[in-house]
Amino acid sequence: QRKKEAQKAYDQARTAYDSGDMARAKELLTRCLRYDPSAVGCHRAMARVYTKEDNTPKVKYHLDRYLELGGADEDFKVRDWLRAH
Question: What does the pLDDT average to over 74-80?
Answer without folding.
Answer: 96
